[in-house]
């Protein structure tokens, strides 16, 4: 009997485990192997160079600058996106004036907002990057034209100013992502039973108290998930940097991120081995981030 | 196939191999992984050598050609292929025109089945440095020593413009690339626009400043440039450095010599461009423009001068108004003390054609090049794309468009004063990223000349010269 059951389990597990090993684990192993070679990305064979790539990486200011930009993204992007997402979702679902027959309601036109916020999610990232590249155009871009229309004679070259360029990238990423979190948090909020709101409103709580004492703790799990998702996006940022920024990656490396530098080294400058070693470094950073997030954001779960 | 026992034995062997590979992460593992393509030398089939077929092309071998379809398009190449087909009717030709050379071809190089001839150009070109250092390209010396297409008594090498063979050499005798198009770099302008404001092309920097001031009074910017790819500015700046300090200054810069950038000629030239920015002679917002956008703004008459190369005439054809009368000038003289007289400029052959060693029909690739270097095909190229080829006198006797006529004239005026900075093809990373971005900052008043020079020297000396992963090259003379 036992033998039969094991065979049953194995027969079910074998295929997915094999597929996982071949298509997920094995490429990782290969990547780690290739990161220790001088592979140009154009040859069928490569020579083993040990840790030379990693030593070079440790001394490469561009790599550290890129990594630093990813870290900035990692902190700033989730913070802004989640705050905005929470705010919008709250206003759409809970934050409105009290109306008849409804305990809680969103602001007027909340249905429309929910759809509008989701628009950027539907667009391809390439479209977004090209679109914003045009919006940031210093001469006839929508941003400066808009500023001029309201009387500010702006000639700011958004993407060419090293002090502003990264901020512009972050703004686009927030714009792109926030709609998804509005919808995600809306779903989370609508799952909170009305009775809870009813109870606090009877106790005389205002919108702020309602948010911080009820909504926020009850959708904490969702926020946490959102943080990890955004963290993963912050570790990337490649498409926007590559398509939208000057150089790309500039001015003066102001918008370079590790995935971009990786791609540039590996595919434009025939240094695939070096690029892969950056990928491995990034893998370690991403794993660290995931572990830390999950460890420090644990909270008691409230069942409702 | 085979019974179950055989399968399990094979699985066992695979597992053992995998374990072994995991246990000893070393060269053995690396050879086995990711790439997996053939590593043997694909010997190209050789046909019989005849008078008409000096390279010994196998007449029925298929030919695989990949052309960068950028500023020059790829009509000139398909025309040449038609001529090839006419000569070798049994051969089938596979033609690919693309802008993404690396993306398309890297997997084929890795797999050991690259095409037979590649026009390796554009922003996504394959890294020559790594292809050469890994020995993946065919030495084109046999082609150069073969009789030319038009005149069997003359070698191919003797039909080319001086310097074009050297352009394909990377620190040795071997010629790895045939640079087909002769580019003239400099300061491009519209003769019609200058005439309108009664300005003569300024041959000294003082005159340039006066001209820009005049234009500014008319609401026209003096200069624009491709702010998103600021290394375009170098197309005028490097020529100016060589003009001020002599050809050796740029050579020592190419050779990554210590303190090469500290030469006073560099400071004078960089200062000149900083002056344009400081005095507000640059079209507002240029720093955010791509090369196409900047050329369009220039075509629209918003700015008078643009640093560029001779491909601009063809590339900006769609936006060039009738009667624009495109022309090119050399970098203006900084002072009477310049080592070279006005006219000296940067000119080099570009558009490198390479023949991969592992191609199945490398000889066919070279034969196609030989056909392209014939008079008929060179003239066809000049007519189609308004650009000269590296074939001497190829454009003689044909009607050239205004920009090319002007480029031709400038080249004649330059005489021996032609500079040929090799940074862009020897160290593209240094040129486009480090130096280009610095120039972007300079033109945007974010960086001083002194800092520009310090950074250039640091990027060249520290980042490149001391990086053992980058193969170094030197000028032979």
From TrEMBL, chain A:
Instruction: Supply the alphabetized keyword list.
Output: Cell membrane, Membrane, Transmembrane, Transmembrane helix, Transport
Where is this gene product found? Cell membrane
SUPFAM superfamilies per UniProt:
MetI-like (SSF161098)
Is the keyword Transmembrane in the record? yes
Q: Which PROSITE patterns match?
A: ABC_TM1 (PS50928)
| Chain ranges passing through the membrane | 7-29, 71-94, 115-135, 164-184, 227-245, 272-294
Can you say what this protein is called?
A: Sugar ABC transporter permease
């Amino acid at each position: 009997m036992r033998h039969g059951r094991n065979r049953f389990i194995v027969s079910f597990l074998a295929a997915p485990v094999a597929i996982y090993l071949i298509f997920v684990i094995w490429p990782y192993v290969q990547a780690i192997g290739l990161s220790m070679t001088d592979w140009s990305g154009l040859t069928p064979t490569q020579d083993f160079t040990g840790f030379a790539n990693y030593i070079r990486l440790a001394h490469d200011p561009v790599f550290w600058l890129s990594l630093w930009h990813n870290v900035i993204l990692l902190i700033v992007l989730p913070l802004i996106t989640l705050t905005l997402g929470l705010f919008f979702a709250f206003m759409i679902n809970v934050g409105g004036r009290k109306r008849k027959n409804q305990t809680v309601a969103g602001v007027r036109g909340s249905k429309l907002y929910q759809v509008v916020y989701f628009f950027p999610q539907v667009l391809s990232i390439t479209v977004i990057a090209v679109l914003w590249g045009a919006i940031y155009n210093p001469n006839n871009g929508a941003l400066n034209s808009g500023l001029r229309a309201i009387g500010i004679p702006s000639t700011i070259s958004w993407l060419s100013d090293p002090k502003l360029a990264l901020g512009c990238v972050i703004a686009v990423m927030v714009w792109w992502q926030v709609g998804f979190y509005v919808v995600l948090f809306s779903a989370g909020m609508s799952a909170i039973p009305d009775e809870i709101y009813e109870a606090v409103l009877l106790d005389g709580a205002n919108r702020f108290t309602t948010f911080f004492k009820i909504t926020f703790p009850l959708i904490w799990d969702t926020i946490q998930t959102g943080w990890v998702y955004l963290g993963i996006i912050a570790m990337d940022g490649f498409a926007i940097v590559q398509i939208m920024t000057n150089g790309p990656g500039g001015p003066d490396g102001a918008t370079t991120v590790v995935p971009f530098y990786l791609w540039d080294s590996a595919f434009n400058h025939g240094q695939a081995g070096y690029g892969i070693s950056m990928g491995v470094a990034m893998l370690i950073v991403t794993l660290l981030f995931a572990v830390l997030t999950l460890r420090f954001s644990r909270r008691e779960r409230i069942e409702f | 196939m085979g019974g179950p026992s055989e399968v399990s034995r094979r699985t066992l062997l695979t597992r053992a191999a995998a374990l072994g590979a995991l246990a000893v992460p070393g060269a053995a593992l690396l050879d086995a992984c990711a790439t997996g393509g053939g590593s043997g030398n694909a010997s190209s089939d050789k046909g019989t050598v005849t008078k008409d077929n000096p390279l010994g092309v196998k007449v029925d071998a298929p030919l695989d050609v990949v052309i960068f379809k950028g500023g020059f398009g790829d009509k000139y190449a398909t025309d040449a292929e038609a001529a090839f087909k006419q000569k070798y009717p049994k051969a089938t030709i596979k033609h690919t025109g693309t802008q993404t050379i690396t993306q398309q071809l890297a997997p084929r190089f890795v797999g050991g089945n690259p095409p037979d001839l590649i026009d390796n150009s554009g922003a996504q070109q394959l890294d020559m440095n790594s292809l050469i250092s890994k020995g993946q390209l065919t030495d084109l010396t046999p082609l150069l020593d073969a009789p030319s297409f038009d005149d069997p008594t003359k070698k191919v090498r003797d039909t080319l413009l001086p310097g074009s063979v050297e352009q394909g050499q990377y620190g040795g005798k071997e010629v790895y690339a045939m640079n087909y198009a002769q580019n003239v770099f400099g300061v491009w302008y519209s003769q019609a626009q200058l005439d309108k404001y009664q300005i003569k092309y300024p041959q000294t920097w003082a005159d340039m400043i006066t001209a820009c001031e005049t234009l500014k009074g008319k609401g026209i910017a003096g200069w624009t440039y491709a702010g998103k790819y600021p290394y375009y500015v170098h197309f005028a700046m490097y020529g100016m450095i060589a003009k001020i300090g002599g050809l050796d200054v740029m050579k020592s810069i190419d050779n990554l010599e210590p303190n090469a950038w500290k030469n006073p000629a560099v400071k004078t030239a960089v200062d000149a461009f900083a002056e344009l920015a400081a005095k507000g002679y640059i079209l507002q917002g240029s720093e955010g423009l791509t090369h196409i956008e900047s050329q369009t703004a220039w075509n629209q008459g918003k700015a008078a001068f643009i640093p560029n190369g001779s491909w601009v005439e063809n590339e900006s054809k769609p936006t060039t108004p009738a009667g624009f009368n495109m022309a090119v000038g050399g970098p203006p003289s900084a002072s009477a003390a310049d080592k070279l007289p006005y006219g000296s400029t940067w000119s080099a052959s570009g558009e490198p054609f390479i023949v991969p060693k592992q191609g199945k029909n490398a000889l066919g690739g070279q034969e196609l090049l030989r056909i392209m270097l014939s008079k008929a095909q060179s003239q066809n190229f000049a007519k189609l794309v308004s650009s000269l080829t590296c074939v001497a006198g190829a454009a003689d006797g044909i009607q050239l468009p205004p920009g090319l006529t002007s480029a031709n004239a400038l080249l004649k005026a330059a005489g021996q004063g032609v500079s040929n900075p090799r940074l862009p093809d020897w160290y593209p990373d240094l040129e486009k990223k480090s130096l280009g971005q610095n120039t972007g900052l300079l033109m945007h008043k974010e960086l001083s000349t002194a800092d520009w020079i310090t950074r250039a020297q640091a990027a060249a000396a520290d980042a490149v010269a001391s990086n053992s992963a980058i193969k170094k090259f030197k000028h032979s003379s």
